[in-house]
């Protein structure tokens, strides 16, 4: 389930969809994880789409005793869109030593639009002692426009305890257009303490500024300190621009303990930087390179270095089909950037 506990800015490179959702199409993607000294693994993802229905089957495999790939887990996700509603079912299966397939978790979600209000309900079930599937959590959210320049989203998470389902988290987010080129967003996230009282565990504020040259988003995150008061623990600055047909994105993360120790009231230090650059290719495709710079965990006071590089290339192989190649590099024990993920996908555009 998409827990509201984790609300973070992240920058990643994703593969292009095989087709628009309503179109028919199929695709197969293979992701290989060499392991770098550990057991390798791979994920085979098979996607089919037809008439507003999409099915994605992702199977994780590892080498068996005979060296052949054997399944260990399978996730089946089915999404159906009908008008203004969509329903998704996600089922997780595990395989035992004899390759028997057992359902271990089911998550169902439904999104509807009614009177300008978007409602989302997501429920997760796992096997219970009676042989059935008991409800373990329910996430509900409502998103609405409360004025010409104001949008609001409120969510509630219920989780199962000894006395049944109990409300354990609340989220609230408001987005306002304060000026023609400025949007301000505020979010509050509450949880229950051991006495049942609602206390904030995170607060986020962000300002998004749009100019002809770039789009800049500055976000400040506050979390409880040792005294229970909300204090600034992280700042994120995201810059997006388009220079001579090249799309560039830079995300910088600042924290007060970037150099390995926390200093109350100290200025924020840069702890991570992500750069992403996308360029059009001569065949009508595109090439994207993303680099993650971070501080060393063993020597946080040293200068930052590139710890991960991701390269994604999309080629048009025919007027109606394209291939996507993705490779991820990370540093090994000797500090060298080595390939850890390779995947290729061919699908309809």
Could you explain how this protein is built, in words?
It is built from no helices and 20 strands. It has strands at 25-33, 41-50, 53-63, 69-82, 85-95, 101-114, 117-127, 133-147, 150-161, 164-179, 182-192, 198-210, 214-224, 230-243, 246-255, 269-280, 286-294, 305-318, 321-331, 337-348. It starts with 24 loop residues before the first strand and ends with a strand. 0% of the residues lie in helices and 69% in strands. The model is unreliable at 1-24 (pLDDT under 50). Among the domains are: 24-114; 235-349, Beta Barrel (Lipocalin), CATH 2.40.128. The chain has a 20-stranded antiparallel beta barrel. It is mostly beta strands and 349 residues long.
Topology:
Elements: E1 25-33, E2 41-50, E3 53-63, E4 69-82, E5 85-95, E6 101-114, E7 117-127, E8 133-147, E9 150-161, E10 164-179, E11 182-192, E12 198-210, E13 214-224, E14 230-243, E15 246-255, E16 269-280, E17 286-294, E18 305-318, E19 321-331, E20 337-348
Antiparallel strand pairs: 1-2, 1-20, 2-3, 3-4, 4-5, 5-6, 6-7, 7-8, 8-9, 9-10, 10-11, 11-12, 12-13, 13-14, 14-15, 15-16, 16-17, 17-18, 18-19, 19-20
